[in-house]
Design a protein that fits this description.
The complex is a heterodimer of chains A (about 250) and B (about 325). Chain A has 10 helices and no strands. The relative contact order of chain A is 0.15. Chain A is an all-alpha fold and about 250 residues long. In chain A, α2 packs antiparallel against α3 and α3 runs antiparallel to α7. Chain A has one domain. The two termini of chain A are about 25 Å apart. Chain B is of the alpha/beta class. Chain B folds into 2 domains: about 220 residues, P-loop containing nucleotide triphosphate hydrolases (Rossmann fold, 3-Layer(aba) Sandwich); about 80 residues, Alpha-Beta Plaits (2-Layer Sandwich), CATH 3.30.70. In chain B, about 30% of the residues lie in helices and about 25% in strands. Chain B is built from 10 helices and 14 strands. Chain B has a 6-stranded mixed β-sheet, sandwiched between helices. In chain B, strands 2-1-4-5 form a 4-stranded antiparallel β-sheet. In chain B, strands 12-13-11-14 form a 4-stranded antiparallel β-sheet. In chain B, α6 links the parallel β7 and β8. The chains are: A mainly alpha (about 250), B alpha/beta (about 325).
Chain lengths: ~250, ~325
């Protein structure tokens, strides 16, 4: 195994992120802080507790998950799209690194960035609301699994996209709405029965539900079901990436 | 003419590059390579010549792992590029035709990145040596976007040399670079050859191949139509021209000399005789006798060899 190659790709991607630190970290933190101010303080003060949790605290896991989902997808998609766009991907294709190693480098870096941002958002949240984490290990596990799964999805988007338009299409028009409708700001119990059923088809709902459980010990759906769903998404994403490398889709003619 | 096998294989018997029955048809149906057989021996400079779209870049891309072959076999120093891809690829360095660089990376970082990607442990001394050899040391902390085209080309070469490859592909290495840089690159290529690196060079500048190559391969319509030592090729296919500076200019070639392959140049001041160097008789003695008989006197004479470019153009035209 070419671990140095993996480390090189990983370090390269992380260095690119640190080079644009202001854009990479400050912008998401400011955005999320605004969510806290608007939904947590302004509107949240008028909303009663949900499952015994103050609304301001209730939305924290959802907001962290929103950030992890979007950042994983964006970072991984841009990470592989840019070398394809600039032509420098030739070097990766010609190097003695396997498909799995390439994925480890790119997806590992994208997931790391998303996790760092998630933790920064968590730290920021403690400035606005009182927080306690019931299951910290599970919290980290769910965050990591989500970051990896959506980084894989971002990697797939980065391979599929043949222009910047497509690159932002999925994160903005699919991931973001799914995150908003997956219970970031509300409990599924607050919806009419028909919409509760519709929500069950939203994959992001399971991620947020499980993540919220790790904070408060309560969730809309069983943690086991959520974990199984996350594992399923991970397996599907891995299968698609494996197919991409087997067929050379948009990478090798 | 058929492609020739390597004249001198490597120490362990395997040539630097062995291509057998390689063919490639793209999804669009375009057949970029028909059946390519080629062997390149270690330590040589091999020039691959061919017109645009002949299949040069496809051939190189397959060998380097960037394009998938439709069939056939490629071995690098005896390592199959499919079965033993990791070892095979670690031996290859590629300088692509396009100036593809990461604009915001610094020169030293991008070269170190290439070395790491190939799994080599960091070696700042080697990176420094490569950068100095390519006159890039002063630019080591410059971002790629600030460099000129010629400098970027040098960085691409530095990147290809970062992991100390044994087989180096230079795909149009001097396209768009000035004469001085071109000569620097030729010197570098020769230095690499002295260090034992095998070099495969594609170029549009036939002068480049003529200057550097040990052997020349010509590819056209996805097929290798000739592989030959450069000297032998020039000797075999080259035609020589004998130029005679006339004392008195001629308006036309006298009837007594029309049986010879003659032409007038320089407003009748020069008589050009073209002959085949490989022919049993060149006809020069007969020409001089006939000129004397016709009373034509000359003040000077010299011969010129066909250039590789003329040979190449002639070959491709004949194939077409």
């Amino acid at each position: 195994m070419n671990l140095r190659g993996v480390r090189t790709l990983y370090a390269f991607e992380m260095a690119r992120w640190f080079r644009t630190l202001a854009q990479s970290i400050i912008s998401p933190v400011v955005t999320t802080s605004l969510y806290f101010v608007v939904f947590g303080a302004a509107i949240g003060a008028r909303i009663q507790e949900i499952d015994g949790v103050a609304y301001g605290a209730f939305i924290v896991p959802g907001l962290i998950m929103l950030m992890v989902l979007t950042q994983s997808t964006q970072n991984a998609s841009f990470g592989i799209f840019f070398p394809r766009f600039s032509g420098t991907v030739y070097e990766i294709l010609a190097a003695p690194v396997s498909a799995f190693e390439v994925v480890m480098g790119f997806v590992g870096a994208a997931a790391t960035k998303a996790i760092i941002l998630g933790l920064i958002i968590l730290a920021t949240a403690t400035l606005f609301v009182e927080m306690q984490i019931a299951h910290p290990v599970f919290m980290l596990l769910f965050m990591a699994l989500t970051a990896i799964t959506f980084s894989l999805m971002g990697f797939i988007i980065g391979i599929w996209a043949d222009g910047f338009e497509k690159l932002s299409f999925v994160p903005m028009l699919i991931v973001m709405p799914l995150a908003f409708l997956g219970g970031t700001f509300y409990s599924i119990d607050m919806l009419p029965p028909a919409w509760q059923t519709v929500t069950l088809f939203n994959p992001v709902f399971y991620l947020i539900s499980a993540f919220r459980w790790s904070f408060f010990g309560t969730s809309d759906i069983g943690v086991g079901v959520s974990l199984a769903m996350i594992a399923l998404f991970l397996a599907v994403a891995l299968a698609v990436v494996a197919w991409i490398f087997r067929t050379g889709y948009r990478l090798r003619d | 003419m058929t492609p020739q096998a390597a004249e001198r294989p490597g120490e362990d018997g395997a040539p630097a590059l062995s291509v057998r029955g390689l063919h490639k048809t793209y999804e669009s149906g375009f057949q970029a390579l028909r059946t390519v057989d080629l062997e390149i021996r270690r330590g040589e400079i091999f020039a691959l010549l061919g017109p645009n779209g002949a299949g040069k870049t496809t051939l190189i891309s397959i060998i380097c792992g960037i394009v998938r072959p439709s069939g056939g076999q490629v071995e690098v120093n005896g390592h199959d590029i499919v079965r033993d891809w990791r070892r095979a690829r670690s031996l290859i360095g590629l300088v692509p035709q396009e100036l593809t660089t990461d604009s915001f990376e610094k020169v030293r970082d991008t070269v170190a990145f290439s070395r790491g990607l190939y799994g080599c442990r960091p070696d700042p001394a080697h990176i420094e040596h490569v950068l100095r050899a390519l006159s890039l040391w002063d630019k080591r902390d410059a971002q790629m976007r600030t460099l000129s085209g010629g400098m970027k080309r040098r960085v691409l070469i530095a990147k290809a040399l970062a992991h100390e490859p044994e087989l180096l592909f230079l795909d149009e290495p001097t396209a768009g670079v000035d004469v001085e840089l071109r000569r620097d690159m030729w010197a570098l290529v020769r230095e690499l050859r002295e260090q034992g690196v095998t070099i495969v060079l594609t170029t549009h500048y036939i002068e480049e191949a003529e200057e550097m190559a040990d052997r020349v391969g010509v590819i056209n319509h996805g097929q290798i139509i000739l592989v030959e030592r450069k000297d032998t090729l020039m000797q075999k296919l080259g035609r020589k021209r004998l130029a005679l500076q006339l004392q008195t200019p001629l308006l036309a070639i006298p009837d007594a000399l029309t049986h010879l392959e003659l032409e007038l140049a320089d407003d009748g001041h020069q008589l050009i005789y073209t002959f085949d160097t490989q022919a049993e008789r060149t006809g020069i003695t007969r020409l001089l006798q006939d000129l004397s008989s016709a009373g034509i006197r000359f003040s000077d004479m010299h011969t010129e060899q066909s250039t590789l470019e003329e040979i190449f153009v002639d070959l491709v035209r004949r194939e077409s």
